[in-house]
Every structure is written in C-alpha cells, then in structure tokens.
Design goal:
Blueprint: H1 2-8, H2 15-23, E1 31-32, E2 37-39, E3 42-48, H3 55-64, E4 70-75, E5 82-85, H4 97-107, H5 109-116, E6 122-127
Antiparallel strand pairs: 1-3, 2-3, 3-6, 4-5, 4-6
Helix pairs in contact: 4-5
C-alpha cells in the first residue's frame, strides 16, 4: 500500500507513467561514467538511459541554472538517431553520417565507437 500511495503523490499508479511523462524515458539513468571530466569552467557528465534522451531534465536544469551553458548530446544504441541540443534548444543535428563523422573528427574514433556502440542510448551533458 505504501508504494501505491507514494506513486499517487506523483499522480501515477505506475512509476513508468511518471518517468515517461516527466523525463521522456522509462527509467532513471542507470549507468554513469565515474570519471566526470572537469576542466576549467566546464564539466562533462556521461550516463545511459532507456528508450530516449531525457531532454526534459536537461532543459529543466538549464532553466534552474540560467547562467550555466548546457550542451546535451545523445544517440540511440545503433546510431540511427542522435542529436545535439544546446542552450537555445534550437540546434539539432540528427542521424546523418556527416554528423557521425564530425563526432569522430572531434572526439577520436575510439571514443566515438565506445560511446555510440552500446546497448542503450548514451548521453553526454556538458555544463559550462
């Protein structure tokens, strides 16, 4: 009964309903890179999610911290779809080989293959 009442606090009887409505993914992130890249004035956080990118969370974080610049890059597990969202949420680069090759040029082939060839969607969020 406690679980049911807890879910009702979020107006849902099943946790997946809340997650998909609020986060656009069915679960919380369940893997993250323990080595967060910290640079002067910038941090990169890497994590995995189910189904799709949690764009609503990234957008909400950018609203909560308006002085920080957020860039969110993600891809699905077979690289058939990926995109890059920046602070204005208007920049989208979707699923082209040209974009994939630009990732290789920017990050290096090994890094791209490790990040993009996974069983689940991969997310990189850079905060400046």
């Amino acid at each position: 009964m406690a679980i049911y009442l807890s879910n009702l606090a979020y107006s849902q009887t099943i946790h997946n309903d809340f997650c998909t409505r609020e986060w656009h993914t069915k679960w919380n992130s369940y893997w993250h890179d323990d080595t967060i890249d910290y640079e002067e004035g910038s941090s990169v956080i890497r994590f995995l999610t189910a189904w799709s990118a949690p764009d609503t969370i990234v957008k909400r974080l950018s609203e909560m911290f308006p002085d920080a610049e957020f860039e969110h890059r993600w891809n699905d597990e077979d690289i058939t779809y990926f995109e890059k969202l920046c602070k204005d949420w208007g920049v989208r680069c979707c699923g082209s080989w040209e974009q994939y090759n630009s990732y290789i040029n920017e990050l290096g082939e090994d890094a791209v293959r490790n990040a993009f060839h996974t069983d689940e969607p991969a997310n990189d969020m850079e905060i400046k």
